[in-house]
Amino acid sequence: MLQPYLHKNLLECGLDEAGRGCLAGPVFAAAVILPPDFNNELLNDSKQLSEAKRYQLRPIIEWQAIAWGVGMVMPDEIDKINILNASFLAMHRALEQLKVQPQYLLVDGNRFKTTLTIPYTCVVKGDATYQSIAAASILAKTYRDDYMNNLDAQFPQYQWAVNKGYPTKVHREAIQQFGITPHHRLTYGGVKEYIK
Question: Tell me: the pLDDT tens digits for 26-41?
Fold first, then answer.
């Protein structure tokens, strides 16, 4: 059972990212402020949901949220600042999209770095603990999936519509056979070995 909030009287924003472990494509993050009385029995950590359920929940979250935003960091930026910092940057870009300023942040994971003055708590497995983080995980995942599906049309040999850029056997074999694209992360093992 997901918790509705950590602090009942504060405007809390959940933050989560998608795509950290991928060899290709941006890392995405989402920020979601849900109303304290938000309730949907389908809502769960995006990893526990089918693709159909994630896409079913996305418009519900966007419609009922007090505010939401999505941010992304491109592969060349990831290579410059590393994936951990890129995840934080994507979260900040998501926060910048919010139409309402949150009073508290609930961040999925065990670390966060910010220059903002908003207080925060890091929550390991937060997407399976708090509704707002679960909602953020769904938006980050579905918007990233949309992005990779679009890229797949240009680069069908990597099967990104299926693997979304993760290091599956098919994806790794395609890199060996066809080389790397401008969408690959050049500092990642499984990619950097194939830089000409």
Answer: 999 999 999 999 999 9
- Nearby residues of 146 by Cβ (< 8 Å), 6 or more positions away: none
**pTM confidence score:** 0.97
